[in-house]
Design a protein that fits this description.
The protein is an alpha/beta fold. Helices cover about 40% and strands about 15% of the residues. It has helices at about 30-40, 40-50, 55-70, 100-115, 130-140, 155-165, 185-200, 215-230, 250-260, 275-285, 305-310, 320-335, and strands at about 90-95, 120-125, 145-150, 170, 180-185, 205-210, 240-245, 270, 295-300, 315, 345, 350.
Length: about 350
């Protein structure tokens, strides 16, 4: 097995495996396994994690590589909980600032509380490093299950989650290779369907604005869906009609202005978030553009703002509450030892056609 590099390292080496870890419940890795792979004593591993200044840089490097290779996480509760059950489920979302996650979390918490479980929440931030640090911190508290809504995990983070040996449900984007279980919808199909709707309404020069997609596989999938719909219809795909922007009303207006500066004949805009779409709509009001006659506006997520504007905004509706409820039921079923739990659930989506297109 080839070991990933520890932060700041320029070397790589091959480490021995920990075969007996696969024979333990959940395949959990022990501190002894890390010590054997690193070629140090268990006490050195413990000190490297809790008192690194007492350990030589060379030993710390070896321990860091062994942890990255095995996905080991310290068990902070093992000594105090004989049953190894915490009745806590951890949930990580990209940000608390986006209300689209609220419906999922509220629904999930209700289903968990009905069975005596509680939800531990965190936001993973914008980078894989932040996501990894948060997930590691949560796993150290030994939750009984994990819900992850956000970007595709880095290989070392995925390894860590697998080695935790607990039920894990992802909720960000439908795909064929979940870490454990998945309940979601296809962002690609949804974006393609909405773009197809704009084309069917007669729009031909369609812009696209989205949150940055470098660390966001949902945004990348929506961008690909938009491009695929244009290509299927024989319409030109132009990078000049595609922009990245942070979420916000002001940012939605700025995105539309930027697109119009690049193409003054733009006749519609698909904004991959209802807040952005509302901001673009307000910009149309400000500049005297009639919606939908001069400019078609479409959003994504069916937030309350989409049906509160005038005109109301056409958008993609996703059953966020269903995602939360089903995710909780999947985790609880696995905790109860059921083996018949579906690994992949597609909740689907629909296009809410309103007056803006």
């Amino acid at each position: 097995m080839s070991l990933p590099l520890a932060p700041g390292s320029t070397e790589s080496r091959v480490a021995p495996s920990a075969p007996d870890a696969q024979d333990r419940p959940g395949g959990q890795v022990r501190m002894e396994d890390v010590a054997r792979i690193a070629g140090v004593s268990p006490i050195t591993v413990s000190r490297a994690l809790s008192k690194p200044d007492m350990v030589s840089p060379r030993s710390r490097e070896a321990v860091a590589r062994a942890i990255a290779a095995t996905g080991y996480v310290r068990n902070l509760v093992a000594g105090s909980l004989a049953s190894q059950k915490t009745h806590v489920v951890a949930a990580v979302v990209p940000t608390f600032a986006n209300p689209v996650f609220a419906a999922t979390l509220v629904s999930m918490e209700a289903a968990l509380q009905a069975k005596g479980f509680h939800l531990m929440l965190g936001q993973s931030g914008a980078t894989p490093q932040t996501q990894h640090a948060l997930i590691s911190t949560f796993l150290a508290r030994r939750p009984d299950g994990f819900f992850l809504h956000g970007n595709r995990c880095a290989p070392e983070t995925r390894r860590m989650l697998v080695q935790a040996g607990i039920p894990i449900v992802e909720g960000a984007n439908l795909r064929d290779d979940p870490i454990d279980m998945l309940v979601s919808f296809s962002n690609f199909d949804a974006a393609k369907a909405l773009t197809r709707h704009l084309i069917d309404r007669g729009y031909r020069r369609i812009g696209f604005a989205s949150p940055p997609w470098r660390h966001n596989d949902r945004a990348r999938a929506r961008r690909r869906g938009y491009i695929a719909a244009l290509a299927d219809a024989g319409l030109a795909v132009s990078e000049r009609r595609i922009v990245e922007t942070p979420l916000g009303f002001r940012e939605g207006g700025e995105a539309l202005r930027a697109l119009l500066e690049r193409d003054k004949r733009l006749d519609a805009c698909f904004l991959a978030g209802d807040v952005l779409a509302a901001g673009a709509l307000f910009e149309c009001h400000r500049s005297g553009r009639r919606v939908p006659d001069d400019m078609g506006i479409a959003g994504f997520d069916d937030q309350d703002i989409a049906s509160a504007t005038s005109p109301q905004i056409t958008t993609v509706h996703v059953p966020r509450q269903e995602i939360g409820r089903i995710a909780a039921e999947m985790i609880l079923a696995r905790i109860d030892g059921r083996a018949d739990v579906d690994r992949r659930v597609d909740v689907g989506f629909d296009i809410r056609v309103r007056q803006s297109t």
